[in-house]
Amino acid sequence: MIEKTNSNIIENALSDNESVIEIKNVFKSFGENQVLRDFSFNLKQGENVVVLGKSGSGKSVLIKCIIGLIKPDSGTIKVFGQNIPDLNREELDKIRVKVGFLFQSNALYDSMTVRENLEFPLRRHSIKTTKEQEYSLIVEALTNVGLADTIDKMPSELSGGMKKRIALARTLILKPDIILYDEPTTGLDPITGKEISNLMNELAKKYNTSAIIISHDLNCVKIVAQKIVMLIDGKCYAQGTYDELKNSTDLKIRHFFE
Amino acid sequence: MKSSVLQSFLSETGDIARFTGRFFVEVFKPRYEFVELLRQCFFIGYKSLPLVAITAFIMGLVITIQSRPTLVEFGAEAWLPKMVSVSLVREIAPVITALICAGKIGSGIGAELGSMKVTEQIDAMDVSGTNPYKFLVVTRVMATTFMIPILAVLADAISLYGGYLGTNIRGVCSWDLYWNQVFDTLTYGDVIPSIAKTFLFGFAIGIIGCYKGFYSNKGTEGVGQSANSAVVISSLLVFILDLLAVQITDLLNLT
């Protein structure tokens, strides 16, 4: 059944102890453009939630607020019980070890090899590993995405799908509890997009991660979404499963599935 | 129209001032990025050396050849090494070095950071436990601040060698006589202020390149604009700082 967001639902959700991310009454605007208006939502442990909305509706802003790259104007964003906007850099870095972020443009460092790209978060987060442990973590992450043979390649030598997989490997190397995906299949052909979507599901099962996935790609949404949140007019307009929302009588919701 | 141009100029000046202020806050705070600083020193200093060396050599040679006829007219040809050395060391070598670096390094930093910004690599660093300002900006600005004076000193030496060859094209001046005349002429008041101002040139080139790249607009067009405006503004700043440095040196009677 589709849950229309109202204050009771929010209260119930936030009192739920299983929630790993709790977003309450978040507002964010850029100049006169109000992107998020009283957005509230929570993510439970082990859940894969897709946030669906039009381009420019604030989906990427939302997950950047969760990871602390953008500060909301007001509201609370609690990740593992800690309010992200209140944290200083050191506290934020500790949270970021547990929360992976897959960027829309992959964000692989052009000047580094695949190995150095994967080493970067390990070294920068000051995770104490020996050289051998570091190497085995890199190989494990690359094997998980099926690209162990690219370890010494530069990102410019890789195809779009391979770059996405390497970016996913870099996100996974810290074994995060939550992964935030920003349009993971955008710019990929339907077959590669499906492969990436299946890979996301496999890795979620293997590492027992929770995920928020921003996507327009309905094929990807159908594969990965356990729940869908509709972000319309800056609010959590509705939430439900793929089939529930697809069969909705609300035109604003149906519009996305036609 | 005029007020909006003035407003955007003042607004950008304020933003650059804030960006510069942040540098002085971040530079003293740990964690210190020594490895990245050394890497940047290598790229900024060593990789710019051939271009700076060739330009300095040609400038030394050309200035000497161009100055000769005037001195010959006054029967003061023997003063050629003295005159050329003062011009080169006090003004031409430091400013030419700074301008070459503004073009090569300023545009490089602007384009590199701009493309990193556009492709979300700066955000990726942020979520990977790295302060991008410290890792990208502080290291580059420190590298330009320390490498450009070294390049300027090398440019001084190479341009003076060019001057020696230029002197001997139409006249005859022995190696020993040339260098004796050069070192007899040059005083600490010539050398130290000219090196001191290159630290300012280096700082300006680094901070403007980083500012333009760090706040690049989205898209590849924005990257091009960042690189372009980094060169234009840092070149202009080199001349403004040179003017100020010369005035201060003059006021302090260091000339």
Quick structural overview:
With 258 residues, chain A is an alpha/beta fold. In chain A, 40% of the residues lie in helices and 25% in strands. In chain A, helix 4 runs parallel beside helix 6 (160-172) and helix 5 crosses helix 6 (160-172).
What's the structural blueprint in terms of helices and strands?
The complex is a heterodimer of chains A (258) and B (255).
Chain A: E1 3-4, H1 7-14, E2 19-30, E3 33-44, E4 48-52, H2 59-67, E5 74-79, E6 82-83, H3 89-98, E7 99-102, H4 114-124, H5 131-144, H6 160-172, E8 178-182, H7 190-207, E9 210-214, H8 218-224, E10 227-232, E11 235-240, H9 242-246, H10 251-257
Parallel strand pairs in A: 4-9, 4-10, 7-8, 8-9
Antiparallel strand pairs in A: 1-11, 2-3, 2-5, 5-6, 10-11
Helix pairs in contact in A: 4-6, 5-6, 7-8
Chain B: H1 2-26, H2 34-44, H3 49-73, H4 80-118, H5 121-127, H6 132-170, H7 175-185, H8 188-214, H9 220-251
What can you see in these coordinates?
The complex is a heterodimer of chains A (about 260) and B (about 260). Chain A is of the alpha/beta class. Chain A has helices at about 5-15, 60-65, 90-100, 115-125, 130-145, 160-170, 190-205, 220-225, 240-245, 250-255; strands at about 5, 20-30, 35-45, 50, 75-80, 80-85, 100, 180, 210-215, 225-230, 235-240. A seven-stranded mixed beta sheet of chain A has the order 1-11-10-4-9-8-7, sandwiched between helices. Chain A has a four-stranded antiparallel beta sheet with strand order 3-2-5-6, sandwiched between helices. Chain A starts with a strand and ends with a helix. Chain B is an all-alpha fold. Chain B has nine helices and no strands. The interface of A and B includes residues 105, 110 and 126 of A.
N-to-C CA distance of chain B = 44 Å
User: Into which percent range does the helicity of residues of chain B fall?
Assistant: over 70%
Q: Helical region count of chain B?
A: 9
Question: What's the number of extended β-strand segments of chain A?
Answer: 11
Low-confidence stretches of chain B: none
Radius of gyration based on Cα positions of chain B: 21 Å
